[in-house]
Every structure is written in structure tokens, then in C-alpha cells.
Amino acid sequence: MNTLADLTQACTIIIWIASAFHAAINFGQYLYAGYLSNRPTVSRRFMPKPGTKEYDELENNPDLAFLKTITAQFQALLGVSLIKGLSRHATNEIYLGQRDTAEWTTDDEPLAAFERFGKKLVEIGSRITERTNDSKLKNRVGPVKVPYTLLYPNTSDYSREGGLIGKGIPNSISI
Predict the structure, then answer these.
(1) 170 has which bridge partners?
(2) Cα–Cα distance for residue pair 47/52, rounded to 1 Å
(3) Where, by residue number, does the polypeptide cross the bilayer (predicted)?
(4) Rounded distance, CA 166 to CA 150, Å?
């Protein structure tokens, strides 16, 4: 690192990874992997080859063959429980654009910059909502009409509601 631009890029990458990138990857795990059929944690046998008794079972009783192949019930319960725990927001979560105390600084310049940043996040949230509600943009919600909210900033939410809320970008990685 030799220039201010290098330092700025490095800091930006660190902030991105510890906030938005982590939110996009971590908090959506349960929505996808919490239903075992979407993402079994292990396959206990290979796809059967034609002419074997396992293949005959697959043809005649596909449900039984599926249940013999996917994760055992106890392992699945452990896996889903772990993913649910990792996907939860803490009740004391501080989101991007928020501070836990009003006294974090008394300097006017950073306070003004932080206020501009907060307004920009609110604009981004509005844009996400607008695009999600635009029926011409089918890739935004898919055929089942489930909106993508993982990167919705949620900056104005000070309720400290934790759990599987599926939105909000924490200030830092929280596990």
C-alpha cells in the first residue's frame, strides 16, 4: 500500500466483507437450507446404476429411495438447528447507518458525513422496495413472490427485534 487510494480500497473491502457480504451470505442460510429438500447436508449413497436393486427401488418407490439417500433425521435436525442459529440477528444488533450511542463523536464533519450516509441507505432501501414491487422485474421476487431482502439496509429500524428477520446489514460480523 503506497497511496491513499490503496488504503481506501483496502478499508472498503474490509467493511464490505464484514457487513454487506456477510449479511448476504449468512442471514439467508436458513431460508434456503432450513428446508432439507433444498439442501441435504449429506448424501448417504450414490445415484443407483440401472439394473441394480437400488435402481429398481428408485423406480418403484422414489420416496423411500430418497429417504434412504438424504441426511438421517437426527443429523438433519442438528444441521437445521445450527443453520437457524447462525441465521438469526441478535436483539442488540447495530445496523449499517446506526450507532449504539449518540456520543460516538462530537466532531461536526464526521456527524454530517454519517447523516449523509444514513440518508443514502434510506434511498437504497426505497429503491430496493420499488424494484421488488415492479412486476416487470420478475427476477426480483421469482414465481413464488418472495422478495429478496437480505441486503435491504433496514437502517431506520431501531426496534432491536432479533431473530430470523431476513433483512438488515449489521455493522460487523455477528455469530
Answers:
(1) 95
(2) 11
(3) 13-35
(4) 6
